[in-house]
Amino acid sequence: MNKLPGQGGLTKKITVAKGKTNRRKFEKEVSSGLSNFINKISKKKSIEMEIASFSSFNDFQEQLLSILSFVRYVGTPLKWTLYSDGSHTQAQIDQLEKNFGFVEVIKGMNWNEVNSLKGLCKSELEPYEEYLLHYCKTSAYGRKLFYYLNHEIEKPTLFIDSDILFYENSNVFELILSEKPSANGWYMPDTNWGCLDSRYIATYTEQVYQVNSGFIFAKSAFERINESLDFFKTFNFTYEYFSEQTIYHHLLKNNAFMPLTPKTFILDSGDQFDFSYLFHPKEMAVRHYTGPVRHKMWQKDYKWHLGL
């Protein structure tokens, strides 16, 4: 049945309003009873992998729900490094680190006061210091790029945005870790070709399975990084919305990373104008609630996501 003109937009306004209410309810409940949440969902099971994420004060509730969903459906990681853009309050940091023994919050640098990356980054990044420093000072995406590229990968490490939630089929991580022969790493594919820097699109032909930088699972340290950073230099200190994602796309393609199945690793905005969901917890491993569908994260309350 076709929708009436404007009906989809009205539906989204209603669900956005409902989402704000559910988000406030979650914030209120976890502020006083986070330990109770953890006791309810903890599987008392560990998994041999690490996680790194990048987020801010404004994304704190999404980040918290992301961590809870991982504990609920996957288990306890060896470590979760949360790179802050610098806006997190001490109360937020304490709430994370005191309730999750595996979480470490890196407050980040005051980029306005950083004039050199010497001694602050891996030696392989130093030849690109001028470019990385400018991007860090210019954009949060630049800081995310720097922190992730500078992160020491000693165990299989999952790099994720704060708006990633885990669901019942995420037990597949155990299979991914034990798979032989194994890929260098995996990523969540974007839904369509084109969410890349225009200068990349002008240089390369269309490719199958474009990388989405919100979900990258590296089995070991990135190799052939220089080629991707040399391409980054061609941006010549000017950036587009997808510039950061483009560097990961270039890097992961060069390192022969494999796409995960979009049937269970969901990056889809097809239900953004609906009250219903195209995807349900029992059918998914992971869903990335990007901007167009951020309201879907909170359209249902946290109990729906955590199976409570």
Notes on the structure:
With 308 residues, the chain is of the alpha/beta class. It has one domain: Spore Coat Polysaccharide Biosynthesis Protein SpsA, Chain A, CATH 3.90.550.10. 41% of the residues lie in helices and 17% in strands. It has 11 helices and 10 strands. The strands form 2 sheets. It has a 7-stranded mixed sheet, sandwiched between helices. α8 (225-233) packs antiparallel against α9 (243-254). The longest helix has 35 residues, at 7-41. The chain is globular and about 50 Å long. The protein starts with 6 loop residues before the first helix and ends with a helix. The mean pLDDT is 93.
Looking at the structure, the CATH topology is Spore Coat Polysaccharide Biosynthesis Protein SpsA, Chain A
* Mean pLDDT figure: 93
Distance between the termini: 34 Å
Strand order of the largest sheet: 3-2-1-4-7-6-8
The CATH C-level class name: Alpha Beta
The percentage helix is 40-55%
Count of spatially separate domains: 1
CATH architecture: Alpha-Beta Complex
Question: SSE order, as H and E?
Answer: HEHEHEHHEEHEHEHHEEEHH
CATH superfamily: Spore Coat Polysaccharide Biosynthesis Protein SpsA, Chain A
Structural class of the helix and strand makeup?
alpha/beta
* Overall radius of gyration: 19 Å
- Per DSSP, the total helix count is 11
Q: Shape from CA axes?
A: globular
Describe the main β-sheet briefly. 7 strands, mixed
Q: Proportion of β residues? A: 15-25%
